[in-house]
Design goal:
It is built from 28 helices and 17 strands. The protein is an alpha/beta fold. The structure holds zinc ion (ZN). It catalyses: Couples ATP hydrolysis with the unwinding of duplex DNA by translocating in the 3'-5' direction.
Length: about 675
């Protein structure tokens, strides 16, 4: 299959029309779903042996969920007795779920959004969770899975993601496995047999597997209390990455002897996609929750009209030693930017689809293991990477829609620690994205939809409102108050300027041009340009001609964009959007309403480093040593947030250590002693 994940590159001829399934940036294309994770190299066939050799903490414990046992390492029970659950019958209480969360994950409580979703599942109802990636959605099906007898099947579209999830579950002592094309037939059979014996609580399955009738029959032999569908928008032809195999999920459900509970998750905002999910997965009277889009630890900022490289370099210098991702729109830009950073002495790596599999795997691994601090990447990077200590994500170019942006930006701060998401905007970014829509999306209806979504992305860059609030509303959630930390909220370096007069000039020009032209031409007329189009239409005779001649055309376009983002002007859909006045504009024209703009005065001051930085660094070193010994990425040992809390508490005994968030029982047994010893030595 042809690689298309970096179709984004406008300089690259590539396929003219990748078709509906590959038209998206934020999801890797089918070719890449089979991309094998570097960490898997050399494990392969041995994986089952490794899992077999480990004492199974499996269903023995969960067979009777009412008696929560503390012994994690109990011998496996060969045949779990299926406990039949009637449809709609409750599964358990939130208190029980919380106990499991504490015991396995080491956290005292669920996040607000997780609570609602889990509560609904526990009441025995199908659930559709609209949650961002990184909003903690895996816990929303993992914890309920721990409370039910049998093996929960998780349909997940990405091999590397499954691998990461199974590693994560493994590290906290929950038995899980995955089945996808990276395994041989014999390995698949072995895993199914183990699942039949009830040795896994969760089984991750690639949707393509469901195409095989034989495979469905194999699964029908399992006790499956729940099917969780990750990235459920893949079931919709309206979704940005339709995958036909998702249509088979329903087939899987009907093959099972008892109808399992269904839990679906997506981060897509459009209603049409949501309706499709309910319809095609045949969710039964599902509750829908929009949740988790407000990530309090993320500070968003949009920076316009400054030299992007200078801003980026300044930021990286201020945050030396922290891990970050820099997304750029094209391969060429990734190459050049990475080279530039290396020249500036930054430990940078790069990742895009033009590199070989090996180059990509190496780059990814070096980033995961904290050897490379800054990853410069195209949108091909990041799917299935759960590195929790990414401290910032910078977008060197504006992405094509809010879904793509939030997916990528949301890779910052998975551990809940304060992190930054910065977008460097230039109007050129809009042109690039339009070109790409034109090249890659077929059909006027779909194109119109993509243009609309692009406009909403551009609005984000121009809105003077709270950015966090804009995001939450875009995805259909409610934001009660401003975040207080985005670049629009925190603005000591911002100045409010009254631009009512300029707005009136622009509106009246749009009106005099009969609302039939786009921004560029309106700006040319206001500037008093003598370009051919202006003269051909005779616009030089309009009373608004040259009204803003003391500004640059770029400035005027920026102002128009601000007025669009604020809803005073509307842009029609399509390739050549036309400016129209909205009803809000007439209040400004009549002098009833005033318009203000925030203007950035100077770059923000560097963030003050915290006093525990040194101790934190030492803990990070200890974590890296442990990770190397175990052959896992450092963040799997403990996330940054856990190390931070240790800095404050400095635990020197088991009880204190177990109170730290992120220290569950399994991890305590594995790593607790190293850290206790470290603090003892430090204090003694
Ligand atoms: Zn804000």
């Amino acid at each position: 299959m042809k690689r298309q994940d970096d179709w984004y590159d406008p300089m690259d001829p590539g396929p003219a029309d990748p078709g509906p399934s590959a038209d998206d940036g934020w999801h890797e294309p089918p070719a890449d779903y089979d991309y094998r994770d570097p960490r898997e190299a050399g494990r392969g066939a041995g994986e089952d042996d490794r899992q077999a050799g480990r004492p199974a903490a499996g269903n023995a414990e969960f067979r009777n969920r009412r008696s929560v046992q503390t012994d994690l390492f109990e011998a496996p029970v060969r045949r779990p007795q299926p406990v039949k659950r009637q449809p709609g019958q409750p599964i358990g209480t939130m208190a029980e779920a919380q106990e499991l969360l504490r015991k396995y994950y080491g956290y005292p409580d669920f996040r607000e959004g997780q609570k609602q979703v889990i509560e609904c599942l526990l009441s025995g109802r199908d659930t559709l969770g609209i949650m961002p990636t990184g909003g903690g959605k895996s816990i929303c099906y993992q914890v309920p899975a721990l409370m039910m007898s049998g093996t929960t099947i998780v349909v997940s579209p990405l091999i590397s993601l499954m691998k990461d999830q199974v590693d994560g579950l493994d590290s906290i002592g929950v038995p899980a496995a995955y089945i996808n094309s990276s395994l041989s037939y014999a390995q698949v059979e072995m895993r199914i047999r183990k699942a039949e014996r009830g040795e896994y609580k969760l089984l991750y399955v690639a949707p393509e597997r469901l195409e095989s009738e034989r495979f469905l029959e194999l699964l029908a032999g399992l006790v499956v209390p729940m099917v969780a569908v990750d990235e459920a928008h893949c079931v919709s032809q309206w979704g940005h990455d339709f995958r036909p195999s998702y249509m088979r999920i329903n087939e899987l459900v009907s093959h099972l002897p008892d109808r399992p509970l269904l839990a679906a998750y997506t981060a897509t905002a459009t209603d049409q996609v949501r309706e499709d999910i309910v319809k095609h997965l045949k969710l039964s009277e599902p509750q829908v929750f929009v949740t988790g889009f407000a990530r309090e630890n993320l500070s968003f900022s949009v920076i316009k009209g400054e030299n992007k490289r200078d801003v980026l370099m300044g930021y990286i210098r201020e945050h030396a030693g922290e891990a970050g991702i820099v997304y750029a729109a094209t391969r060429k830009e990734v190459d050049q930017l990475c080279e530039y950073l290396l020249r500036q002495g930054v430990a940078a790596g790069k990742y895009h689809a033009g590199l070989t599999d090996k180059e990509r795997a190496d780059a990814q691994e070096r980033f995961l293991y904290d050897e490379v601090r800054v990853m410069v990447a195209s949108n091909a990077f990041g799917m299935g990477i759960d590195k929790s200590n990414v401290r910032y994500v910078v977008h060197f170019n504006m992405p094509k829609n809010m879904e793509a942006y939030y997916q990528e930006a949301g890779r910052a701060g998975r551990d809940g620690e304060p992190s930054d998401c910065m977008l460097l905007f230039s109007p050129q970014d809009i042109h690039i994205q339009k070109f790409l829509i034109e090249q890659s999306v077929s059909g006027p209806e779909r194109q119109a939809q993509e243009y609309r979504r692009l406009q909403q992305m551009a609005d984000y860059c121009h809105t003077p409102q709270c950015l966090q609030r804009y995001i939450v509303r875009y995805f259909g959630g409610e934001a009660e108050e401003d975040c207080g930390q985005c670049s629009n909220c925190v603005s000591p370096d911002m100045e409010l300027t009254d631009i009512t007069l300029e707005a009136q000039q622009i509106f009246s020009c749009v009106k005099r041009m009969r609302e039939r032209f786009g921004m560029t031409l309106v700006a040319s007329v206001l500037k008093g340009s003598r370009n051919k189009k202006v003269l051909d239409f005779g616009f030089d005779s309009l009373s608004t001609y040259g009204l803003m001649r003391n500004r640059t055309e770029k400035d005027i376009v920026d102002l128009i964009q601000l007025l669009v983002a604020e809803g005073y002007l509307q842009l029609t859909e399509g390739k050549y959007p036309v400016l129209r006045l909205s009803s809000k504009a007439s209040d400004v024209l009549s002098g009833k309403e005033r318009v203000v703009q925030r203007i950035r005065l100077k770059p923000s001051a560097p963030v003050v480093q915290d006093v525990e930085a040194e101790l934190f660094d030492e803990l990070r070193k200890l974590r890296t040593e442990i990770a190397k010994r175990e052959g896992i990425p450092p963040y799997i040992v403990f996330p940054d947030s856990t190390l931070r809390e240790m800095c404050g508490v400095q635990p020197t005994n088991p009880a204190a250590m177990l109170k730290i968030k992120g220290v569950g029982e399994a991890k305590f047994f594995k790593y607790g002693a190293f850290f206790i010893e470290f603090f003892k030595q430090r204090q003694g």
